[in-house]
Amino acid sequence: MKAKTFEDLKVWQDSRDFVKSIYELTASNNFAKDYGLKDQIQRAAVSIMNNIAEGFERNNNKEFVVFLKYSKGSAGEIRSMLYVALDLNYI
After folding, report:
1. Phi and psi dihedrals of 63, rounded to 5?
2. pTM of the model
């Protein structure tokens, strides 16, 4: 079955769950006080979700792939920031 909306995409649904998890994680004590890191990791998580949606709405597979690559880049950014949070004992 072909997705009719970006909300039909499993990858978008998973990214939505991921955003919620990031927001819950960053609400913890020390993480919540580190406004810069908290803001950046939250924005990167939302960027994953939004780039999937925007790419899908372009109705062009080539452009969709480009936006999926942007999402992948944001995922790498989050992975890197999670190491910072780990090193600072936020997680």
Report:
1. -70, -35
2. 0.92
